[in-house]
Amino acid sequence: MISMALIPARYASTRLPAKLMLDLGGAPVIVRTYQAVLATGLFDEVYVVTDHSDIAQSIESVGGKVLISTQSYDCGSDRIAAAAASLEADIILNVQGDEPFIDRESLAALLDVFRKDTASQIDVASLMFVIDQPQDINNPNHVKVIVDQYNQALYFSRAPIPYVREADDRAVYYQHKGVYAFRKSALCAFPTLPMGPLEKAEKIEAIRFLESGRKIKMVETKISSIGIDTQQDIEKARALWALT
Questions:
Q1: Distance separating alpha carbons of residues 71 and 221, to the nearest angstrom
Q2: d(CA 17, CA 33)
Q3: What is the rounded distance in angstroms from the CA atom of residue 209 to the CA atom of residue 61?
Q4: Fewer CB in 10 Å around end: N or C, the chain?
């Protein structure tokens, strides 16, 4: 099974301008993410897919591989789907460019989905973890996911889901970790799927599969994620990096 990791790296960012080029321990965020994915040793190839020369140069300066993609896309999966068309791979992982703390255990668990007896039934898999900080449940920057008894995604939302109606009841909240594992055929089909009203409203690319009647297998990881979307996030990331 040939597996590759593609890291979509768009330069523009509305919430935190040029966030992928912000310094994290002496190197840009995108370089730290690339190095973390490469260090897992799980992939036959690792590429950064970008629309900007600054990002490309930063990756090439550390010996990394870059695919240039200057067209405008709605989301990262659209961007890497275009790049993946010419690659010889069975499984392609989409690792967001702002995941410098991505861990080997989580990525290995995603790849393992496609080695199990039920693998033929799965085209897309992604990660989730239990939210342990109450303030994160209501944070719209943290995407929540609910699943069925087989860990198939039912819905993703920036709102707190599930809604607990009775005050005495309790619920487990899962946060979506922005990493996807695709069969190449499923990834290449992604841009052909129409963007539905729910994806447009939530701005969550995973919803496109659900609105099209397809399934996403969710894999629970015990390791939480620090994505970088705000100034507070980058400050938190820098503090954590200083401890490593």
A1: 34
A2: 17
A3: 36
A4: C
**pLDDT tens digits, residue range 212-242?**
999 999 999 988 877 788 899 999 999 999 9
What b/e string do you get for 202-219 counting C-beta neighbours within 10 Å, with b at 16 or more? Answer: bebbbbbbbbeeebbbbb
Which of 164, 132, 47, 56 is CA-nearest to residue 95?
A: 47
Q: Which residue is it, tokens 């321990």?
A: 25
Q: Spell out the domain ranges in the chain.
A: 3-242
Residue environment code for 102-132, b if the CB has 16+ CB neighbours within 10 A, otherwise e: bbeebbebbbebbeeeebeebbbbbbbbebe
CA distance 119 to 28: 36
pLDDT digits (tens, 9 = 90+) for 23-35: 999 999 999 999 9
What CATH number does domain 3-242 carry, 3.90.550.10, 3.40.50.2300, 3.30.450.40, 3.90.1720.10?
3.90.550.10
What tokens does 178 get? 């922005």
pTM for the structure as a whole: 0.90
Q: What is the pLDDT of residue 226?
A: 79
Cα–Cα distance measured from residue 198 to residue 216, given in angstroms and rounded to the nearest whole number: 16
Report which DSSP code applies to 106: H
